[in-house]
Queue: 4 jobs
Job 1
Amino acid sequence: MLRSDDDFTDDEELQTPLDAINPYVLLADTLARLSVQRPEAHAQLLAHVAQDPHGAQAALQALLQHAEQQRQADLQKALVQQPA
């Protein structure tokens, strides 16, 4: 039996453990750990990013700023949800 597109709906209430992970914060934290655990690899990565003629350095900086904003928003949300 063939199914129509109407048979498939998005379940907006469906949540997975991955929903709790903020990808921007995860990337920022990963880069920070890399700078501590493998500073030579971190420096090499940043050197490649700096040489990219397509604006990768500005994009990375914007991503890291966005990650920090998301981190602050997540902290605020957690504070509001805490019982008094």
Job 2
Amino acid sequence: MVNFVSVRDLARKELVETIDQYAGKKVRPTTVDAVGGSCSRYLVLSLQILVWDESLIGPMDLVAGFAFLRERQVSRMLPLRPGRLAASPASGSADSVVFVVRPEVELMRRVADNIRG
């Protein structure tokens, strides 16, 4: 029998690592823990936009729903469409944009359209 929870957890971990890799500003908090030592964890203060290949939205929802992604500072999820990306870091709505797509030429053209505007 296949343990699908383990598969989901592994996929979720890889997604979180990818999102964190492209996160914007990271700030070390200045708080002190209960023992009196300093805290070494980083806080991610950026908002991110995920742009999805529409065929991946359903399967990825099984791995990480929008509530989970909000915890990772994802502010919006948009389908990948041709043309200019309406919400971008330049427009002030997010610090970074992460594209989640399959490796297909047509999808790469759409990503290029989104970036070039």
Job 3
Amino acid sequence: MTDLKGVFLNASPNGPEDAFGLCIWLVTLAYQRRVEVQLRPLDLTHLQYVVVALSAWLNHTQGATSQRDIAAISGVQEAQVSLMVKALK
């Protein structure tokens, strides 16, 4: 079993603010908040926007697009993409 205390101490010896994963997490949260503010007037969630944007791009570049195509490119599970498509109809 991995010694988790050792992993954390070696990864960020000066504290959590030096941990790369935490930095990525904070940047991601800030990005999501800014996107959500911009999408609020459109009554879209970030995930709905991703599905719409990818659908438009894929339709433009390769023609007919499936939910499986959107899931593969976005990294979102097919079932979740399906729910988003239903919510957008």
Job 4
Amino acid sequence: MNKLIVVLVLLVFVSVFAVMNAASVSVNFFFIKMNISLALVIFVSALIGAIIVFLISLFDKFKKLKETDKIKKKLRECEAELAKLKVENVEKENNEIIQKQME
């Protein structure tokens, strides 16, 4: 919810800023030169920035998901080993009790 509020506030800020700067500007993009509205340049730049941030965060989420899966696998292995050790410990205690009773 907080992220949505921050995004909406930024969207309003960029929109107001773009509308206040609606003059036509000359833009050079590699070999192309064109005159377009500064508001359009601002919107497109903000959109490209948002897409880049989204892709980076998506990559980070996948990385964390992979790490979480690795940790869960390790946890399952440790739990299995603990269960095995508990069984071995009970067997050892039972053997000790039996040996004491035989003496």
